[in-house]
Amino acid sequence: MARRPLPRILRNGGAQLARSRELARTAADSATDVLHPLITIMRGLRRLASAGRRRWLDTPKERRGALLFLVASVVLVVALLPYGPLLAVITLMTAAAWQGRDRVPAGSGGPDESQVKRLRSLYHALVPYFSSAGDPDPLYTHGGAWENAFPAYEFDGTGRITHLLISYPAYYTDGEPESRARIEHLLAAKSGRGREYHFAWDEEGNQLTVRVLAPLPADIAAQRFVTSPGETVLGFTDPTWVRRTLPLTHGEEQRDVPPVVWRTGVRSTEPHLLAAGHPGSGVSTLLRSVALQALVHGDVVIIDGGGTGEYACLTGRDGVRSVECGLAGALASLQWAAHETERRLIATNRAHQAGDPPPADTRRPLWILLDRPSAFTHLAAADGREDPQSLLQVPLRHGRPVNVTVVVADQLDSMEALTDAVRQHTRARVVLGPATPDQVAAVLGAPPHTTPVEHVPPGRGYARLGTGPVHRLQVPATPNPYDDATGDAHRQAVLDLLPARTTTADAAPKARAPGRTRPAPGLLSKAPADEPSADTAPATADRHPEAAVPAEAAVAESS
């Protein structure tokens, strides 16, 4: 059977069909352009009708009659007005055109030329680190495309990167701190200095997320925080890392800020704190803030190795056992604190053996705050006396069961002068002021996940509680109220938090020589007459030999 030839239009009419399709598409586009206002109005009328129908269905049945009467009245008034129907039609068409407009915003279509240039620069800077000669399908190559390496990105109004998702090959050594540090330093330098970047490494997905962190609020003054007994607010951090927030007052404004809360007491896993920083970084501000919070529920012993009078406002206040600035007074106060810790251990052990609750005086927290103990170390060595840090072994080792907390603060360049007991038993750590990542890691035990900046306000740094994550920290403004450079608002905020002054500085007893412990001012009369007082525990060691038993013996007795 002979095959019939194809029609002529199918054999050589391909060009004619293409021209016909092009003419039809052009005609359709022209008709769409011409009829676009009509299409917009029809779309708007349909949306208005749908809105009217929904309104009618949402109206209760008992109110539909009133609604119909209202609509009929409006129509009657419009019909009786001069040019009323014409104006009604114009208004309806205008409303329909407004409702029928294209509401889908025009897409950005990708980054602009300057943003593409910045992304391409980042890509080529990462090529030497994320490329390998033996990779058959390299993601990073010289002259390659950056679109596959950066799946997501965001820019601010100035054209700088605020969020960037980076994909990297699986063979990169992202588990080594040195490899991570190189990439983080490179990205911080190429993305713009002067900002803090947070780096989140997804080792399983081979992705790195870079985010620009907003500055922490540095204008929060000292105030009463809504906390439970045993909780101390060290400062404030980012909301993405802490789920809890505290209500704060800033002038007439109320705000909720996520805090860094340090828990002390019997059940605390980080019972003691070590703070470090350069001069002017806000370490003394942190200690004043801690002291003001501790005085709400406990007693405080303050030792100032700097001798600058940063804690003179606390002298003679209720709950402040002593404020010492000299070597002799520091030795006497720390010796009393060590004996007081031993006395509490013995009293608590006897109560446990008898099946009774611990005495009330052992449950009241006792805080020992030392600012720059390394200064006393040099003075004691020159004078041939005992190092005051050696007297901290008993409070540091055995203070947690009897509510004794030690806070030590010193400068970064004096960390080697701290004793092993201080470094081992202070599991809560704070670093304030400008510091390199190596210095932060040396104090906290882990590097920060952000890039430190050179210029930071006082009280700005990092905090780590035990083995937890490293948090950015901003200490609340707690300046010395007696300093002339302090503002009136912050001065008044600190003065409002100070307890009442019951003993003047002149009436307070002077520090005695080492080996003789002085009682705390203003608290002897509060102790019952039938039991040894917490203030006179060292002095009664001769009358009660068991009170002079060292802490190790007390612990052995309890076991």
TrEMBL record:
Presence of the UniProt keyword Manganese in the record:
no
InterPro entries in the record? P-loop_NTPase
Residue ranges, compositional bias (Low complexity):
547-559
Q: Does the record carry Membrane as a key word?
A: yes
- For the region Disordered, what residue ranges are annotated? 502-559
Which keywords are on file for this protein? Answer: Membrane, Transmembrane, Transmembrane helix
What stretches pass through the bilayer? 65-98
Q: What is this protein called?
A: FtsK domain-containing protein
Give the source species. Streptomyces cathayae
